[in-house]
Structures are given as C-alpha cells and as structure tokens.
Amino acid sequence: MPSSTGYTLTDYGSMILDNIRMPAYAEALRRHVKPGMVVADLGAGTGVFSLLACKLGAARVYAIEPDSSILVARESAAANGYADRMFCIQGLSIDTKLPERVDLLVSDLRGSLPLLDFHVPAIRDARERLLKPDGCLIPQRDVMRCAPIKAPKDYARLEQPWDRNDYDLDLGAARKYVARSWWQAIFAADQLLAEPMPWATMDYASIVDANVDGSMDWTIERAGILHGLAVWFDAELCEGIGYSNAPGLPDTVYGQRFIPLTAPVTVVAGDRLHARLRANLVHGDYVFRWDTSVTGADGLVKASFSQTSLGAAPMSTEDLAKRVDTYTPTLNEKGRIECFVLEAMTRGQSLRDISQAVTDRFPQRFANWRSALDVVAELSAKYSD
C-alpha cells in the first residue's frame, strides 16, 4: 500500500538499491558522522540513513518521517541494536520539537528535481530550529540544469492518443491539459540539442526562498526536432562527494524531468533558443511557468510559447465558482458528518460512542455504529494527538 507521501516500501527499497545515490550518501555520512554526534534525518522513510549514522557512532539519531514507514524504521533500529539511540518520530519536521540541537541534518526530500512540496521550507526550518550554529547539512547544495531536447517518444504522450488514435475519435480536448504538465523521463545524452545550462542553485546552508526563476539562452548545436526541455540536478552532498541524474549517466531512482513545448519545432545548428523557467510554491505544490522562443540565424522568430502548469487538470465551472472569494459555502453531507465527528472528539468520547452518535444523527448514511467506525477512525488517526 502507498504511504501518505505516495511511496510504497517497494519504492523505498528501490532507493536503497540505487547504486548511484546510496553509495554517495553512505560516503558523505562516513565523512561527517563522528562518535558522540547527534543527527537528525528529515524524511527518514524506513530509516536507512539513521541506521548508518548509528553504525558510524552517533550518540543519538532522530529519524523524522510523516508516514507509517517510520514503523519499519523503529523495528529496524531494534533489530540492529540501536533502539536506545535511534528515536523514530512520526510527523513533519516543521511540527517536531527535539530536546536538543543536532550536529548534522541529513535529508533527501527530492523527486526528479529538488522542487518537491515543502522541501525548502522544511530545510530552512530545521536549519534554524534544530541544527547547531556550527552544524552541517547533507546535502549541501543542488544545481539544477536544463537543455533543449529531442524526445519523440516522450512527446508522444501529448500527441497520442489525443491528436491521433486508432479509433478515429476526436480526443483533442485533453491535449491542452497534458501540455501543462512536467513529467519524469529517462533521456540519453545524444538527445540533447545543445550543451546544458544552469537554471538555479539551491544552497541549503542559506536558502530562504522556495521559489525559482531563471533564464537561459542556447545556440542549437545539432539539427533536429525540438520537443521541449530536459531538467535535472547535480547534488553536492559534501565536499568532493556528489552525484547527478543527468542524461547519459547511469540511471538513478530520480530520472529527469521533461518540459514539453506546445508544439514541436524544427531547428538547425545556429538557431537560438531562449527559455525562462519559473517555479512558485503555492499551498504546498509548485506552479511552473515556462516561456520559450526559437529564433533563426536570420533573426526571425520560428516559434514562441508561453505555458503554465496551472490548469493541468480539468476543473468545472462549479468547482471554480466555489473558489471565488465572494462565494458563500454550505456544508454537504460529508462535511456535516466530519464536522459532527470532530466536534464529538473534543468531548472526550470513545470512538465507539462517537460512531454510535454519528449513526443516530445520520441514519440514512450508516446502518449501525460499525459502519460509521471507518469514517470516525480515519478522522481520529488524522487529527487526534
């Protein structure tokens, strides 16, 4: 089953087996963890980094993870003889208070890019609240890089089945939504049409702003069909230790990120490509914007696009209306049930008593208290201390 972060134990296993990522982290920990140190592991998952820190002599390790994979970490701590110094905390790091500041913060809160949910706010908060003034961070920085790319197979997700299919159906309504998406892909080095350029550097010792805005200019080096941009990161875990998920290097669990253009563009050597990429963290999710233009050697613009990930999923006019500041909402039945349960939780009642009360209040929805218990228990797990 997936965890609350969307990862399964199989996913965590793939991360451990990644022979690019994992050895680099292990070596960075070996260089930094000294006997007697105190370590915090943010987004600990099943606790592998925490266990390695214990093995290297850390006096105390705080493994912090919001989902239930932390229970595996707790069992592993006991199995390896570290239960007395590896403390497994289920929750978000920004909600976690530790009894002491730590010497080292270790984390891997990335996806195919470091722009993942509350990665930057979590690092900033932990750096300011949990880390000693002279403490260290792993990783230290990530450099995101970008290059124009020929990617017919990946671009086919835009064209098939939406532009054409085997059933002679017009499915083009979906295309505009897919064109607003970035997705994970695996690219070869020979798909790049020009050398990569740095987009942004994320220095975790000082980063404050989670938003990214950068422009790049390329001269096309190889003729072909330009389908979009490839983006990846080069990680520096500590001085001299790092890895990259760049195209052409051995595969990692991350892959790269593909940014499609609205339409493919035929380019030749000497053409100029300008791109501005922006990523803004809004309510826990990144909104991406990308403006691109291709200019020929004669100075004429071949193509120009302005795209955004806003509206990447269809939304009805009714749903949009409910988000306008003048809208006056009323609770539907599901909302009334959840409100009733949450109010009952403030009165110190057992889950059985709450379930029975819910059944009495909403008899058309629940046949008996047991049928209501699933709803009540889910809210209890989510909101109770």
Verbal overview:
With 385 residues, this protein is an alpha/beta fold. It has three domains: 9-108, Rossmann fold (3-Layer(aba) Sandwich); 142-314, Hnrnp arginine n-methyltransferase1 (Distorted Sandwich), CATH 2.70.160.11; 333-383. 28% of the residues lie in helices and 31% in strands. It contains eleven helices and 15 strands. Strands 6, 7, 8, 10, 11 and 12 form a six-stranded antiparallel β-sheet that branches. α9 (333-345) packs antiparallel against α10, α9 packs across α11 (369-383) and α10 packs across α11 (369-383). The longest helix is centred in the C-terminal third of the chain and has 15 residues, at 369-383. It is globular, with a radius of gyration of 25 Å.
Q: What is the terminal-to-terminal distance?
A: 24 Å
The CATH superfamily of the largest domain is Hnrnp arginine n-methyltransferase1
Number of strands: 15
CATH class of the largest domain: Mainly Beta
Largest sheet report = 6 strands, antiparallel
What does the average pLDDT come to?
A: 93
Q: Ranges with pLDDT <50 over ≥5 residues?
A: none
Shape field: globular
**CATH topology call of the largest domain:** Hnrnp arginine n-methyltransferase1
Q: How is the secondary structure organized here?
A:
Elements: H1 9-17, H2 21-32, E1 38-42, H3 48-55, E2 60-65, H4 69-79, E3 86-90, E4 102-107, H5 119-129, E5 131-138, E6 141-149, H6 152-159, H7 175-178, E7 183-185, E8 197-203, E9 212-219, E10 224-238, E11 241-244, E12 256-267, E13 272-282, E14 285-295, E15 301-308, H8 317-321, H9 333-345, H10 351-361, H11 369-383
Parallel strand pairs: 1-2, 1-4, 2-3, 4-5
Antiparallel strand pairs: 6-8, 6-10, 7-12, 9-13, 10-11, 10-12, 13-14, 14-15
